[in-house]
Amino acid sequence: MNVRGAAVQSGLAALGLVVAYTTWQREPERAPGEVVVVDVNKGDVQKVRFDDGNGKTVEMESHKEGGEEPRVWLKLSADAKAKKPAREVPGNEGAERLWEKFAPLRATRALGTMSADKLKELGLDAPKKHLEVTARGVMHRFDVGSSPFGVSDPYVKDVGDGHVYVLGGSVVNDLEAAGVRFVDRALHGFKPGDYDSVTISAGGKSRTLSAPPAENAFAIKLINPKTNKPDEMAKNWHDKLWRLMVTDVLGKGEMPSSGTPEVACKVEYSWKGKSKGFVELGRTAPSSVASNASPTGPGEQWARSERTASWDKLPGSADELMKECLKVAAGE
Questions:
Q1: How many CB atoms neighbour CB 94 within 10 A?
Q2: DSSP-derived secondary structure letter, 288
Q3: Taking the mean position of all CA atoms in its chain, how far away is CA 135?
Q4: What was the pLDDT predicted at 22?
Q5: How does DSSP assign 123-165, residue by residue?
Q6: Domain locations along the chain
Q7: Which residues face 199 on adjacent strands?
Q8: pLDDT digits 0-9 by tens, 225-276
Q9: What is the pTM for the complete model shown?
Q10: Is 188 helix (H, G, I), strand (E, B) or coil?
């Protein structure tokens, strides 16, 4: 290839890089009529707050806890009907996706400013619901009105400039249901295959089993280092532990109303000698119908881990799991 040909090839390659970079940086195509209401990036959003007008509020923020990656946290107002106090709890993957809808916040239609009669028609003359998005130190406040034709995307009015939009992405519906749909009920952020050893402790006894990688992460065996053979009892027990369902999530600094759980079982996970996480299972004291009465039940079952804000409530079946933990820890 001569000098001229090489120069042409280099020029074409450089042009290709420029086109590729421009395409990568370009904002995704919008749907017809779609507009950006709050033009910010994900890292610019500091807080989202929604007030339903009936005393129920939810706030969203993204921040680190300990050494973990930033994640979305929810501040939920007290719920007298459900007998729940105000709580700050971690959000799940759905909460993360909802957070991304504010960066930027989009609307399916922009309607401009409207007359008082029209605002009344759209439920924006005396709105109860309000949405606030704080980004780059600026709070954007919106009145939330009714939904056109009964669909999920409501009319909103920018309090700052009076412009009206049809807010897209089911943002308001998601915020209204955040306390139920978007609370993280997972005990761990890692999955089977992300650890290579498991230490099970209970009743003063402790045993460490290896968990060598497997093609199917959910078929990982727990190996007894003394016999170098799979421990089926430990694996079956651990499978049940891993599938535990959380029935309620307490917030930061909150303790069970039935008292402080007494830890009956602890499981620690490691990867190449470094701690990956843990879970503790505990019980609270049995309840009684009166101070001088006999206990009416076995108490409540709770769990906490490296991922939880406090204790998470477990179903009654977890009590049997705690009893079995002692046998597994002792290798019986």
A1: 16
A2: B
A3: 21
A4: 36
A5: T-SS-SEEEEEEETTEEEEEEE---GGG-S--EEEETTT--EE
A6: 35-181, 197-330
A7: 208, 268
A8: 999 999 999 999 999 999 999 999 999 999 999 999 999 999 999 999 999 9
A9: 0.83
A10: coil
